[in-house]
Structures are given as structure tokens and as C-alpha cells.
Amino acid sequence: MTNKYNENNGMERVLMALQSFCNFTYPPDTLPPQELWPKTRHIADACNMDIYISRHYLMKLVKNNMAYMSTGSINNSLRWYIATPASLSCVTKAKPQDVL
């Protein structure tokens, strides 16, 4: 049970950090440019965790359609954006990557 609690707690922390970084104001059905999305390092630092652990949680969020991952590396970093109800309809613009 402790492992499941730690897993859920870590994922919740990453989701909250991602939400705080993704507070851009954009018209409905649009996402900000991927260059503006937070890097894995920003999210890891905000959660006080290793970048590989934060990436693990971020990829789980992508798999669960709760976040988007950049289509490629930008300045040698993956970028992430939260999938809010307003942005879920623009999946065609920024498709979640198939992970795991």
C-alpha cells in the first residue's frame, strides 16, 4: 500500500506543478507554442524530485490523457502541457505521444 500511496502522491505533485506552470491565457481550442511549455527540469525542481522520476510521472499523465508531451526535443528538453477540458478538444493540434 505504501508504494501505491507514494506513486499517487508523486503523480499528484507532478500534476499540480504542471498545472501551476501551464497558466497561459490562450483562446479556446488552442495551445501555446511548445517552446513555452515547461521543461522536465522545471517540473522536477518544483516537486523536489529527480528528473527521471518526474518524467516517469509525466509520461503516465500523458498515457492517461491528462497531459501533452512535445512532439520532439526542444533545446534538448522534452516539454509538457496539462490537458485541461478546454485543451482536450485540440488533440489534433498536439497529440499525446504513445508511451509505454
UniProtKB/TrEMBL annotation:
Pfam family, one: FaeA
InterPro entries, A to Z: FaeA, WH-like_DNA-bd_sf
GO BP term, pick one: regulation of DNA-templated transcription
The entry's keywords: Transcription, Transcription regulation
Protein name: FaeA-like family protein
Upper lineage: Bacteria, Pseudomonadati, Pseudomonadota, Gammaproteobacteria, Enterobacterales
